[in-house]
Input
Amino acid sequence: MSFKLTILGCNSAVPSLERHPTAQLLNANERFFLIDCGEGTQVRLREYQLNFQRINHIFISHLHGDHYFGLIGLICSMHLLGRNKDLHIYAHQELKAIIDLQLSASNTELNYPLFFHPISEDIDQVLYEDEKISISNMILNHTINCSGFIFKEKKSKRKIIKDKIEKLNIPFDKYNGIKEGADWIADSGVIIKNNEITIKNTPVHSYAFCTDTLYNEALIEKIKGIDLLYHEATFKKDLADRAKQTGHSTTSEAATIAKKSSVKNLLIGHFSKRYKNLDELLLESKDVFKNTYLAKSGLVLDFNNLSS
Amino acid sequence: MSFKLTILGCNSAVPSLERHPTAQLLNANERFFLIDCGEGTQVRLREYQLNFQRINHIFISHLHGDHYFGLIGLICSMHLLGRNKDLHIYAHQELKAIIDLQLSASNTELNYPLFFHPISEDIDQVLYEDEKISISNMILNHTINCSGFIFKEKKSKRKIIKDKIEKLNIPFDKYNGIKEGADWIADSGVIIKNNEITIKNTPVHSYAFCTDTLYNEALIEKIKGIDLLYHEATFKKDLADRAKQTGHSTTSEAATIAKKSSVKNLLIGHFSKRYKNLDELLLESKDVFKNTYLAKSGLVLDFNNLSS
Output
């Protein structure tokens, strides 16, 4: 299935002209999930020609402004542009009062239903699930309540080889079982192995979003083997103390988490504004974990083209 | 004195890539006043190389998001970038709770003192005054409480003609009276008229900011003869009904207010996103009031070069 991540912003703390605050859009087979929503996110979505009315689920990691100050503007623009379908927001509880107060101050009654789903402060839970994907939070270790998110496509059923199934006169009501892996026992008693009458379906993808966080080995088990890990790397490794003081990670810490959890690819971001050129951050991370990518606004990562 | 207005954004309702939501910076002799602060204002200030730490007073007309959603980000960036001097915000009361709630959710205690000055909902008052300038609100007529602002430089004292004053042996302690217009009576009893020993000082400037508002003749007396009137012109004149329904004005209504109040120049803005090309709006306004300018991001109007 198609599974693509677009980086809308990847800077920490203060927005600049070229590097925008955190926001990412995950397109999982034409389901659009927005992850964080720093100031200006709605303009970035326009810039990259991503129709924001197609977003039905928004996940906010924590309530530092560089991760959500663009949300109220997006909610209002969706309203002003005639949205009428549901919007689901997953965030820490305090955000609900902030949204409500701003809608009330402008005397706005949204045209569409907005559902607010509070994220637990202390346990990891499934936040959203349908037949194709499951999305969970994972507690991070920052200066305020902060949550990462794991997106996992569900294992798809096997595909029937139509010609063979028809030749064997397998009745239609057995198809589902066979798609789920059952063998077929012919009238003669001969067992036809499932892999003779089905083929594997498309691979499933997984993505973990970890920002903002201290180096935290508790994450390793949770993200084991994931296709792509986004891990913040606010600082270069020489500023490990500064990272610790501010609840952040360095490049080499991000890469160490990637290595220890055997993820397939690492995307680093949330860069401090002090770094004008990000190449050194990439090199530092690659030193520890080769398959590292550097987040930048407009970058699109197609999971079908990543190392597997 | 130098008196310059920079347009940071001039669109209504929904931000677009090229046209940003309302924000303006008035530089009155190196005092910087920010008027409205739509989403992305801090990035616009960077784009035009205007140091936002020099802003000490922010005026918010009303609590529709396109006029203030960028404020909390600006407040936080000022904090993160080490501000320690006072910041004064003038806005309707509800904004205080919105700011407080967002600072509390991120566990932020600002490094600098933030003073909140509520704007009256029903009377015009002086909001700020010093020896050089006076700033007042004026009640507008919109769908929620909304205020315009009038900036008036104070009449400056006359300048002494040094040579003449010295020749007449006028003592130093009389200088102030003479700067304020007093004649000089010489020992001989001869009266030296003030205009023989002083010259006019630099002209004073005035600016009125009117957004968002219905056509409202109550404004005329308040803005009589002002140097520059910013008046919203959300719609072309064929959409007068739509303007009325939404609490806005048309081009010709803005220009009629300018004409009836004998202002010297008119700047129209707050354009509906439906207008790709704004030339027709300018023409419609010029039909009624010749000295019309079109607001666009980055436009700088120097009051010393405007028609007077």
Residues 159-199 of chain B form one domain. The mean pLDDT of chain B is 95.
